[in-house]
Amino acid sequence: MNNESILLAQKVASILKKKKFESLQVLDVHNITSLADIFVIVVGNNTKQTKALADDIEDALSEEDIKVIQKEGYQTANWILMDYGRVIIHVLYKEDAEFYGLDRLWQDGTTLLF
Known about the structure:
Layout: H1 3-17, E1 23-28, E2 38-44, H2 47-63, E3 70-72, E4 79-83, E5 87-93, H3 94-100, H4 102-105, E6 110-111
Parallel strand pairs: 2-5
Antiparallel strand pairs: 1-2, 1-6, 3-4, 4-5
Main location: cytoplasm
Protein name: Ribosomal silencing factor RsfS
Subunit structure: Interacts with ribosomal protein uL14 (rplN).
């Protein structure tokens, strides 16, 4: 895992800490998958909130010339996946977060505290 991944995850956590959400988890997964270094999993209470969280992340990072590579799920807003290369952000509606259990699926990852 490189410092750029850590710095980006810190920026995302900082952006989110100013917002309302159900839960936030930042996981170091670089030892258990080649998909990414870090997963950021944030859970919102409703789909309006998940869209707002995704918008806030994208807008704030865009201001620093950090562009999302791929974004999926925005229309339904149940599970919005934002690919920033080595950092992948999952913005989930509470019910979908419980159903899919990403926190359980990636429980072997190391929780990062920012």
